[in-house]
């Protein structure tokens, strides 16, 4: 039964785009994307679905907006095996995050991070986490709390003690 | 622009981000909140941070203090050579009020180990970045008569409050010639073979910490039979064990990397011509100058470091590859053992452990706190599989409490230096 479904899907793919099968992805906000299977399987999550023959109908990608999914697909296209030299591509991609302090850029990176995590795309997750790491290095403790919207749960005494312990790290 | 609330970022992703941040920033980020502090202090984190950061190693320079005749105290200065400045930054100096000298016994995992030159069995471990210094228990001095012509090693496991344990091995029959080189989780030494060629015997000894066994890994196949006088240098490159081999009467040297450590596969990564630089003229002061080959992204630069100019003191320096790490030596404090000892007989301690990040309890399923109660055994042995997955899922809730019990008791600090005095000696800023 399942093998028949696969054969059927790939033969219908023949008519559309060579021998490449197309997958239909639907974002959280309803946008629909058609993506080559060979590209979309850079996502471990989607690859699992394809391997289990669950990818025959539209794949809902919850938690990811159409805008973000378009960026993810752009990433996939750039990182298709043999597409562009990875290193140069990475540099170019990273340069987008140079101004990560800007609120909208920051949101983009957050969205991509979440999408890369949800879809399990190791290369994208790697790149995004490195970009954020690059952006936050050298920042102060308070800047970090603001950046990630974290409230300190140390009481004043504890924090003073901790700071004293490594006073030099707070001197600029 | 409308203010979109900052989305919730799972802690899992936070940890993936933080592990890529330079160790110097992490020292500050520890104070963001308790969960971050526990994360950054965990062994899981330290291990991963070091393996990522080791792709861009730094160089650590430690002046070797000459044997003192009139010294009433010693200092050791740890200097890190940074790529940006190309000049060493004095990270800290540690003052000890006793009368003896130290030499560098080994560098690895962001830590530097000092051994006493004249008091057998005394050693110190320090993390130059966090400025923690841990005095190691003394090695029991071996009765040399009983052990004639036999070599034994002693191992100390942190946190067990045990003494050094003796390990003997049939393949252990060499005196190590170099400081240990840490790579792939094992320690490596060049064997000292005074009357034979390096190439006729097994030239490298390795030690696996998990299995506590010695091995004799092979050298690369240089493609010809090396002459008796040939030597090689054991080092690390991008986290891999590396061999630098200068071919006699040739105009180049080669750098081999052990790419596949499991199967001991060596790959020749670089063949560097020596015609690009003429070190002979610059190397007049042997011992005070060093050549560094800076290799990254398949380009290389040759850097001649004249230590006299840089540090302005005619002393010998121990120089090693170094990767700054946030590993806290407080881990190895024995307070937890003391805490367990205080518990009256018949009582159980239930430990809720965030075993996802503090991998120590599960990864290396060795006993962490000595003999344990049944309940603890269950806790750690059933940590694999589903239970561990469950733990991971509720990790957010337990994150800040997981290791709380012992950490509240860690009052005794190992650093013995006087902070206020030390701060003034540090000239450089540590901001990035």
From TrEMBL, chain A:
Keyword ATP-binding recorded: no
Pathway(s) the chain acts in: Protein modification; protein ubiquitination
Domain of life from the UniProt record: Eukaryota
Cross-referenced SMART domains: Skp1 (SM00512)
Domain SKP1 component POZ per the UniProt entry, residue ranges: 22-80
Record carries keyword Zinc-finger: no
Sorted UniProt keywords: Ubl conjugation pathway
InterPro entries listed in its UniProt record: SKP1 (IPR016897), SKP1-like (IPR001232), SKP1-like_dim_sf (IPR036296), SKP1/BTB/POZ_sf (IPR011333), Skp1_comp_dimer (IPR016072), Skp1_comp_POZ (IPR016073)
Occurrences of domain SKP1 component dimerisation (ranges): 123-169
A biological process from GO: ubiquitin-dependent protein catabolic process
Assigned protein family: Belongs to the SKP1 family.
UniProt cross-references to PANTHER family, sorted A to Z: SKP1 (PTHR11165)
Subunit details: Part of a SCF (SKP1-cullin-F-box) protein ligase complex.
Function field: Involved in ubiquitination and subsequent proteasomal degradation of target proteins. Together with CUL1, RBX1 and a F-box protein, it forms a SCF E3 ubiquitin ligase complex. The functional specificity of this complex depends on the type of F-box protein. In the SCF complex, it serves as an adapter that links the F-box protein to CUL1.
The protein's name: SKP1-like protein
Automatic annotation (TrEMBL), chain B:
Source species: Dipteronia sinensis
InterPro entries xrefs: F-box-assoc_dom_typ3, F-box-assoc_interact_dom, F-box-like_dom_sf, F-box_dom, SCF_F-box_component
Residue ranges of domain F-box in the record: 3-47
Gene3D superfamilies: 1.20.1280.50, 3.40.50.1460
SUPFAM superfamilies: F-box domain
Protein name: F-box domain-containing protein
Region (Disordered): 401-432
PROSITE patterns: FBOX (PS50181)
Acidic residues bias: start-end ranges: 417-432
Pfam families reported in the protein's UniProt record: F-box, FBA_3
Top-rank lineage group of the source organism: Eukaryota
């Amino acid at each position: 039964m399942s093998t028949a479904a696969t054969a059927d899907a790939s033969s219908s793919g023949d008519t559309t785009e060579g021998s490449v099968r197309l997958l239909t992805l639907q974002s959280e906000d309803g946008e629909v994307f058609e993506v080559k299977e060979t590209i979309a399987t850079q996502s471990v999550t989607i690859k699992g679905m394809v391997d289990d023959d669950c990818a025959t109908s539209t794949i809902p990608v919850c938690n990811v907006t159409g805008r973000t999914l378009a960026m993810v697909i752009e990433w996939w296209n750039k990182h298709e095996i043999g597409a562009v030299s990875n290193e140069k591509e990475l540099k170019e991609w990273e340069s987008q995050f140079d101004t990560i302090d800007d609120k909208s850029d920051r949101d983009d990176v957050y969205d991509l991070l979440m999408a890369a995590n949800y879809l399990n795309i190791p290369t994208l997750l790697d790149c995004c986490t490195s970009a954020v790491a690059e952006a936050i290095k050298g920042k102060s403790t308070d800047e970090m709390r603001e950046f990630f919207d974290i409230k300190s749960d140390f009481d004043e005494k504890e924090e003073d003690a901790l700071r004293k312990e490594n006073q030099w790290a707070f001197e600029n | 622009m409308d203010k979109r609330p900052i989305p919730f970022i799972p802690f899992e992703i936070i940890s993936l981000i933080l592990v890529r941040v330079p160790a110097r920033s992490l020292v500050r980020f520890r104070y963001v909140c308790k969960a971050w502090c526990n994360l950054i202090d965990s062994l899981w984190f330290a291990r991963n941070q070091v393996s990522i950061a080791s792709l861009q190693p730094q160089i650590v320079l430690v002046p070797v203090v000459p044997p003192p005749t009139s010294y009433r105290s010693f200092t050791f200065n740890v200097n890190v050579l940074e790529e940006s400045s190309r000049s060493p930054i004095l990270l800290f100096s540690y003052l000890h009020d006793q009368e003896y000298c130290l030499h560098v016994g080994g560098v690895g995992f962001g830590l530097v180990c000092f051994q006493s030159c004249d008091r057998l069995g005394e050693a110190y471990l320090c993390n130059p970045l966090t400025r923690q210094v841990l005095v190691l228990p003394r090695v029991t001095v071996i009765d040399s008569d009983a052990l004639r012509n036999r070599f034994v090693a002693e191992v100390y496991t942190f946190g067990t409050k045990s003494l050094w344990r003796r390990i003997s091995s049939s393949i252990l029959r060499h005196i190590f010639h170099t400081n240990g080189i840490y790579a792939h989780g094992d320690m490596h030494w060049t064997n000292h073979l005074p009357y034979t060629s390096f190439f006729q015997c097994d030239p490298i000894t390795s030690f696996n910490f998990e299995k506590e066994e010695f091995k004799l890994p092979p050298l690369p196949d240089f493609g010809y039979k090396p002459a008796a006088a040939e030597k090689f240098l054991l080092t690390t490159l991008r986290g891999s064990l590396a061999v630098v081999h200068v071919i006699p009467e040739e105009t180049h040297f080669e750098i081999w990397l052990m790419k596949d450590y499991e199967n001991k596969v060596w790959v020749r990564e670089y063949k560097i011509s020596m015609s690009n630089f003429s070190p002979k003229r610059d190397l007049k002061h042997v011992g005070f100058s060093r050549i560094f080959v800076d290799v990254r992204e398949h380009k290389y630069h040759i850097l001649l470091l004249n230590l006299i100019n840089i540090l302005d003191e005619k002393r010998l320096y121990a120089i090693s590859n170094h990767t700054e790490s946030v590993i806290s030596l407080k881990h190895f404090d024995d307070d937890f053992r003391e805490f367990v000892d205080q518990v009256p007989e018949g009582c159980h301690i239930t430990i809720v452990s965030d075993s996802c990040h503090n991998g120590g309890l599960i990864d290396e399923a060795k006993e962490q706190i000595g003999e344990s109660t049944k309940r603890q055994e269950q806790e750690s042995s059933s940590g694999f599989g589903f239970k561990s997955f469950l733990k991971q899922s509720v990790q957010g809730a337990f994150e800040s409490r997981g290791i709380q019990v012992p950490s509240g008791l860690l009052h005794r600090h190992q650093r013995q230096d006087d902070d206020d005095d030390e701060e003034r000696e540090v000239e450089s800023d540590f901001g990035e």
